[in-house]
Amino acid sequence: MKPRIIDRLLLGLVLLLFIAAMVLVILFLTGVLPVGNFTGAVEELMGSSLKAGYIRIGIIAAAAILGVIAIKLLFTPYKAREKEPANNASLLSADENGTAYISAASIDSMAQKYIRSNSRIRECTNKVTVNPDSSVELSLKAIVLADTNIPELCATVRKELKEYIESYAGVKVEKIAFTVVNTYSPATATRVN
Q1: Interatomic CA distance for residues 135 and 91, integer angstroms
Q2: What is the CATH number of domain 85-186?
Q3: Separation between Cα atoms, residue 87 and residue 60, nearest integer Å
Q4: Given phi > 0 = left and psi -120 to 50 = alpha, else beta, which region is 135?
Q5: In terms of Cα–Cα distance, which of 100, 80, 101 is closest to 90?
Q6: Is the CB of residue 169 less than 8 Å from the CB of residue 107?
Q7: Ranges assigned E (strand) in the chain
Q8: What are 44-99's pLDDT values in tens digits?
Q9: Domain boundaries in the chain?
Q10: Distance between terminal CA atoms of the chain?
Q11: The dihedral of CA 7, 12, 13, 15: what is its sign?
């Protein structure tokens, strides 16, 4: 919960008055302002005149109000805003019964499952980005078998993965970036006995 504007103004007022009081104390203790001025003002307030009584009542009221404000600010809860589930999830549906989301991690798992089913892809890392309009973008970085027709594989993976995610997850796939980072040749792989 963000602090309300009135709480911020009250906190600013209390802090300004505290700073002013500390500046006065420093000025009196360092001798910049003579202590006689301070003691004279205190003796005037402690006097028995009617004017001194009104000033004391005013100072007591102001101190009580500042004390109440300080106590209120001390016990005002300030919590960090919790992230909404839509920040890393895609909106599936929203109606009078509520909303349904699918997380980016779920879409990532679905993409991994599809990738593992393709025998031409040896390894693959993927990243799922959820756009503000609840569509998703996937970025795949793969190591494929050496004797693979890479343009054909890229086109097939992008088309089939898009259809797979859209049909099973129910979200629109905006873009799939498929990058072949290396090729793998089983014949050149060393064998450990």
Answers
A1: 8
A2: 3.30.300.30
A3: 51
A4: beta
A5: 101
A6: yes
A7: 89-95, 98-103, 121-130, 136-145, 173-184
A8: 666 666 676 777 777 778 778 877 887 777 777 765 555 444 457 777 667 787 88
A9: 5-74, 85-186
A10: 62
A11: positive
